């Protein structure tokens, strides 16, 4: 969770932005539903023996689990969830699957089901709990380790769960500050991470019992995050930025608190992800993201395998989301900037690929627009990386434009399929996404440069992107809008308040109107990190004046552009009263307001019908104010 980047800077868009003379024909308008409906089939997985496929597919607009035997065409629906999507599932063994469903806004429950749809069992029949799977213990039949939190505390204890009897036995009690547990390859709980809100402590023990001992304490600006144990269970592979700006993959001796070896680091971006083979007990590769995902291989066999996939699916990002236990059968997933991609089944014994499904077959990727990497300088000299999408068939000149800042703010945008981006481009808008300071992935300095800069230097980075677009002749300065979700929604509101000269309209979807009130009512799940948030965003007392100054709720009188404001009344991230207060202030100041409030939604609109309603309204709102294209 960090960021800083690159020394060599050049304005860089290599698509001939201001000199294109020959253009493809303008594409037809794609229906809103085709962008935002549930996928036809998604989240494919292989059973451990490689004999069955499973996937999620909608039934009555709710995602359920389907099972299909390899070599057979028919798939059978085994779950019948009607109230909520099944949001996560996995194979417990060759015959049974586990799945998680939301239980109200603040909880989740774990269920088990036989692959033929029989023997449904509620494994956590306790109200007001939240469940996470810690260790499937694949070589210990009938048992798994779970983490469970009760009463909405956000603190998880570790339990041994017997899948047959349903018996749950407490294994590790959370003393009140543990935010993460880790097991070794023998399923012993040997690492605990504690957090007091500012400092993180890595705790370690030699075996499955006994006291955890403190290894290292770091301020939240630094981290040592154990990923997996080495295969002899003596050391760990970890992501670490100790003594460096960019996170790297290292081999670490927890017993003696010593880094043994840097496995891989990159000069421009953080590296967090390590891939390994449980069968062969070796690490195979790391992945990291520059402007696209890249691989670094440590094993000749892995490199040969993935290189063959890259050649076969040239132009796509390729991942392997599931494989059989013997590592001879694989599921291969492709994606790109213009496609949600497809799933393939690959049997190394026969060297044959079988296409299983396109994720969104109703959209032709040839009708969609390319997402290109860009970079520009901020006014104080930072390099801001981002992505520009130009509507297919349009010259990169004098276009209606949408600024689309990401949420978080401690996230980042990446190259790949983004349904909002493609929807907007299809409606004739150029779309700019930027990884403003505070975004992660570019090192600690870049990340920390966003501390206590909400509405200030972070906002300047967004404004500098607007200026860059105008200077390049890409954006029509009279037709620029800003649209964001969550923290991106805050940026949209702040843009309308502090730089009204740029924007002809703004859209906030589950945005944050009042920083000070938000800090004062931090969600329960965030409370272990309260002091950290005070340092990163601002203290409700010490920084009270700053937080009030940069809270849009206090400046509705400055807004001159139309606003589309949407939120769910079940949002557990933002107090619903903050939303209502802001709506009242907009109305009191006669702002041209389009409002959408959903009683049954939380921080994002999970139900398909609500997503479709939102984007249908958005299409009309943007066309009215920016004169793009509409299907209406």
Briefly say what this structure is.
The protein contains eleven helices and 35 strands. By secondary structure, the protein is of the alpha+beta class.
Feature tags:
4-stranded antiparallel β-sheet; disordered N terminus; alpha+beta; Rossmann fold; 632 residues; 11 helices; 8-stranded mixed β-sheet; globular; Neuraminidase
Description:
The protein is built from eleven helices and 35 strands. By secondary structure, it is α+β, with helices and mostly antiparallel strands. An eight-stranded mixed beta sheet has the order 28-29-31-30-32-33-34-35, sandwiched between helices. A four-stranded antiparallel beta sheet has the order 1-2-3-4, with no helix packed on it. A hairpin with a 2-residue loop joins strand 2 and strand 3. The longest helix is centred in the last third of the chain and has 19 residues.
Low-confidence stretches: 1-23
Instruction: Assign the CATH superfamily of the domain at 368-626.
Output: Alpha/Beta hydrolase fold, catalytic domain
In DSSP terms, counting alpha (H) and pi (I) runs of 4 or more, how many helices?
A: 11
Round the Cα radius of gyration to an integer and report it: 25 Å
CATH first level of the domain at 368-626: which class?
A: Alpha Beta
In round numbers, the mean pLDDT is 91
Span between termini: 42 Å
Q: Architecture of the domain at 368-626 in CATH? A: 3-Layer(aba) Sandwich
Profile the largest sheet. Answer: 8 strands, mixed
Shape: globular
Helix % is 10-25%
**Strand percent estimate:** 35-45%
Lateral arrangement of strands in the main beta sheet: 28-29-31-30-32-33-34-35
Please tally the β strands and state the result: 35
